[in-house]
Design brief:
Elements (H helix, E strand, L loop, with lengths): L34 H21 L7 H10 L2 H17 L4 H18 L3 H12 L1 H4 L3 H16 L6 H31 L1 E4 L10 H13 L5 E4 L2 H10 L3 H12 L5 H18 L5 H6 L7 H34 L17 H11 L12 H16 L2 E4 L10 E6 L5 E10 L9 E6 L12 E9 L12 H18 L20 H4 L8 H7 L11 H9 L5 H18 L6 H4 L2 H10 L17 H4 L9 H19 L4 H12 L7 H9 L6 H6 L5
Parallel strand pairs: 5-7
Antiparallel strand pairs: 1-2, 3-4, 4-5, 6-7
Helix pairs in contact: 1-2, 1-3, 1-4, 3-4, 4-8, 5-7, 8-12, 10-15, 14-21, 16-17, 21-23, 26-27
Length: 689
């Protein structure tokens, strides 16, 4: 079946910036005022396509004209929604209303679609003819999944239940969008006022100058420390004033108070939806389609890894406490502001520097963004046979650069837009979004996938390029792991592309790439001083690698705390009458994972995007679970060479290209020659010999 990129019809206004073929992007032309009309046209087109599928006589039904046609029916609507959400996240509030409209429209369409009994029966009819139609295994799997999705979404429910499910999903779409927008606006509004420059001792002069300019722009004296990621970590890691660090911690942990009621309502609606669909909890509903298969298995995974990590965390806390007492000359009781993160904060950062043996080295000066990116591209090229070329595609902001990814045969398989820098109006954090999945059926490779990758790295100054911390480098490799997973996907069906991998696996192809910067031969390539071109001293490199496991148990417990909170709040055990608000419940859970008293003002659930405004509700445990998988996968690279092209091609073909075309356990076994296990991760963390 040929996909209909151009069937907009004669009534499409030529002047609407969002009405164009879905395999094109027109950044620079999009207008938020065009969204309403574009949604109307795209929705009408999608509805007509669905009506045509339903009207097809059963004897004429096949996979292409029923299943594929259904999957492709709303491509134009997806495009409008994707652009509205993307531009809201990257350009700011001028797109907020457009994002809300698009989110409501696509939720309304998909909710109605997944409860359409006639469409469901059409799919069942194709399934009954599977042998006659000679469906491939991928097609059978896709058809089975589509039918399962209809059943999971209440297609067989009574009319009253269906109407309530529609209302719940519409409300959830609005609330999740509102949660994300509230947080983004709160981050833009919030700042920490600092009167004296002496209170910022330890922070580099360029950030201090930027905060002085920020204060002037806000009409206040002194300095205004913003809540963008580079600024927050500059205070948390480098500022010598405990008061300023504490104030910054409190500001971050009390951000977006309006989201507490939003999160509460989201949880209540998800619980109701799960019960209407016959599940005891939303966590049970979600986990049944994941690798771990059940909520109890997910709980067991979290609990078992927690028990393995707790003794290590206590050892790490004792070591850090002794170090703090040594350098301050006074007794120290663990303080939450020194432990409340998966990163190395003020004292931990100092201890790590002491153990690397050279406190005079500023690693960031050896890691300019463009240099790191160039070397990262070279590494992916060596492993996967990929070539990266500057692209002529339009961009949404002057910060953004686009690149075409070319495979070994010279095929243009993907275009990636890299938006690495922090700026006002842009959502904080790092994320990757597949924006368009090209058709690879029948071995076709004549058009590229589209992928967007984002981060909040420090902006360049008049004197310096963007200089990355080592954690920034890890983040860049992580996100580009997602990019390559999307770019190199070659699944027969678009619906089984890598972006549709199971959510407790999907982080493995990104997390595995975090291993590369730690390898001496890779770090030597990445790290060249931005002025002199000098490499990091060999001894420093060795010490950095030796310290990879620095506070590894504490960092894993941070992920396990977030996983545990996410799962508990979505479980049948969470009872607001007994447990209180999501933040009250979260503080009690957090205390089980922290070596210091949790702050009473800690309202972190107001800023926890992954479950409340993302796709990770009841699924955050996918991060540590995927880490088990990636550590095992990387063990083969450790044995055969981290730049071994044979191993890289094998990983590309067995793990990246296959997406969700087969069970992930099968792909893992084919690459490793055996089922996965947790021993590689435990060894890497120093928890087993």
């Amino acid at each position: 079946m040929v996909r209909s990129y151009f069937l907009w019809g004669d009534t499409v206004p030529e002047t609407n910036s969002l009405l164009h073929p879905v395999n094109e992007l027109h950044f620079g032309a999009y207008l938020p005022g065009d969204v309403t009309e574009a949604l109307e046209v795209a929705s009408s087109l999608a509805e007509q396509r669905i009506a045509d599928i339903i009207a097809l006589p059963h004897e004429e039904r096949g996979y292409d004209n029923t299943v594929l046609a259904m999957q492709d029916a709303a491509e134009e609507l997806d495009l409008v929604y994707t652009m509205a959400r993307h531009l809201s996240n990257t350009l700011g509030n001028t797109w907020r209303d457009a994002e809300e409209l698009a989110s409501a429209q696509i939720t309304s369409f998909t909710t109605r679609l997944e409860q359409d009994t006639e469409l469901y029966e059409a799919l069942k009819h194709v399934q009954q003819k599977a042998a006659e139609l000679d469906l491939t295994e991928a097609q059978k799997r896709s058809l089975r999944d589509e039918i399962g999705n209809f059943e999971r979404n209440g297609v067989n429910a009574d009319p009253q239940t269906k109407e309530r499910l529609k209302a719940i999903k519409a409300s959830l779409a609005e609330l999740q969008t509102l949660y994300g927008q509230n947080l983004k606006e709160a981050e833009e509004r919030a700042y920490l006022p600092v009167e004296s420059v002496t209170d910022l001792d330890g922070v580099d002069d360029e950030k201090i100058d930027a905060w002085k300019d920020e204060a002037a722009s806000r009409g206040i004296e002194g300095y205004a420390v913003t809540l963008d990621s580079p600024s927050y970590w500059a205070i948390a890691v480098n500022c010598k004033s405990e008061k300023i660090r504490r104030d910054m911690h409190k500001l971050m942990r009390t951000l977006a108070p309006e989201n507490e009621s939003v999160a509460t309502e989201i949880l209540a609606l998800r619980k109701e939806m799960a019960q209407l669909l016959g599940r005891a909890s939303f966590a049970e509903y979600v986990t049944e389609t994941r690798m771990l298969k059940t909520e109890q298995n997910a709980r067991n995974f979290i609990d078992e890894l927690t028990q393995l990590c707790l003794p290590g965390m206590h050892r790490e806390t004792a070591e850090l406490t002794a170090f703090i007492e040594k350098i301050t000359g006074k007794p120290y009781q663990p303080n939450i502001i020194d432990f409340d993160s998966g990163n190395d904060l003020f004292y931990a950062s100092q201890l790590k520097k002491e153990r690397t043996g050279d406190e005079t080295i500023n690693v960031s000066e050896y890691l300019p963004l463009e240099q790191v990116q160039e070397q990262m591209f070279a590494i992916f090229g060596e492993l996967y046979g990929a070539t990266f070329r500057s692209s002529s595609q339009p961009v949404w902001h002057e910060d953004v650069k686009a690149y075409d990814i070319i495979d070994e045969q010279g095929n243009h398989v993907s275009t990636v837009w890299c938006d690495w820098l922090a700026r006002k109006g842009k959502r904080s954090g790092a994320w990757t979004k597949p924006a368009y999945v090209a058709d690879r059926s029948g071995g076709k490779i004549d058009e590229p996938h589209f992928v967007f990758v984002h981060a909040s790295f420090p902006r360049p100054t008049k004197d310096k390029p963007s200089l990355l911390s080592f954690n920034n480098v890890i983040s860049m490799f992580h996100e580009f792991g997602h990019v390559m997973h999307s770019s190199l996907s070659k699944t027969e069906l678009r619906s089984q592309h890598s972006c549709w991998s199971k959510w407790d696996f999907v982080e493995a192809p990104s997390q595995i790439m975090e291993n590369w910067p730690w390898q001496p031969e890779i770090l030597t390539k990445l790290a060249k001083h931005y002025k002199t071109g000098e490499s990091l001293p060999p001894g420093f490199l060795q010490n950095m690698r030796r310290e990879r496991n620095f506070r590894a148990a504490s960092k894993m417990l941070w992920m396990l705390y977030l996983s545990s909170v996410d799962l508990y709040l979505h479980s049948k055990d969470y009872d607001p009458q007994k447990d209180g608000t999501p933040n009250q419940a979260a503080r009690r859970i957090k205390q089980q994972f922290m070596p210091a008293p949790v702050a009473e003002y800690d309202n972190s659930m107001n800023t926890f995007m992954h479950p409340f405004a993302g796709a990770y509700a009841s699924g955050f445990h996918g991060y540590p679970f995927a880490e088990v998988i990636e550590a095992d996968l990387f063990s083969r690279f450790e044995q055969e060479g981290v730049l071994n092209p044979f191993t890289g091609r094998s990983y590309r073909d067995e793990m990246l290209a296959t997406g969700n075309e087969r069970e992930h356990e099968v792909s893992i076994s084919k690459f490793l020659g055996r089922p996965y296990n947790s021993q590689a991760l435990l060894r890497r963390m120093g928890l087993v010999a």
